[in-house]
Amino acid sequence: MRELIRVSAGQTVPLTYERNGVPTTVEVPIVPNTLAVIDDQGNQTGTTTGGFLGITGSTEYQTGSIGSALSLTGGLIGNAAHAVVTIPARIPALWDSVFHGAQRQQNSPVGIVGAGEISGQILASDTDGKAKLELFLQLLAGFNLSLFLLNLLPLLPLDGGHILGAAIEWVRRGWSKVRHKADPGPFDVAKLMPVAYVVALLFIGLSVLTLAADVVNPVQLFG
């Protein structure tokens, strides 16, 4: 079949297929394509023109159950958690994409500008409306889950840092009650402020680097 396709470049040929026992014939165009000529040693000796026939499957949408929705949500949460945890490991590649022109990876951290760029690529893609909506909603869910999990990190000034302070206070009071000691009082969250300053500076630096990467070398979702 490959040889028949190659010698039919530029022609429209009948193609018969059978589905559920019913034969159907359609007229399909064979697109001319440039092919490499390879000798017996595996070396390219030139090029030639041959036909190309591309076939892709169609997407079928089905209504999922509550269980499948919960399973999908759990998978999205797991992917978002992995993305948050691996942010430090992706910073060197992000730096190279800004200052050394390295190719930007699709799993590279992005900011508001990058999110807008990716959304535009989805809307401009050569897919149907359902596929665009599905991909856009997945992108929106991924961003929200990532921000939610990032905010839960036990570091000030994030909400997770305040939760950590409340947890420390609860443990201290419980331990004092077990030992029949006086209530130690509220935990002084101000003791963690030096950590908060460092975290804030790191987030500002990451935001600036991400913004520069989104402008200079944006993520290409379909390329």
What labels would you give this structure?
223 residues, alpha+beta, 2 domains, two-stranded antiparallel sheet
In short:
With about 220 residues, this protein is α+β, with helices and mostly antiparallel strands. The protein is about 55% helix and about 15% strand.
Order of strands in the sheet with most strands: 1-2
Largest sheet: 2 strands, antiparallel
Distance between the termini: 30 Å
How many runs of DSSP E, i.e. beta strands? 4
Number of DSSP helical runs: 7
The ordered H/E elements are HEEEEHHHHHH
Share of residues in helices: 40-55%
Number of domains: 2
Please, could you describe this protein's structure?
Helices cover 53% and strands 15% of the residues. The protein has 223 residues and is of the alpha+beta class. The protein folds into 2 domains: 2-52, no CATH class; 60-223, no CATH class. The strands form 2 sheets. A two-stranded antiparallel ribbon has the order 1-2. The longest helix is centred in the C-terminal third of the chain and has 24 residues, at 193-216.
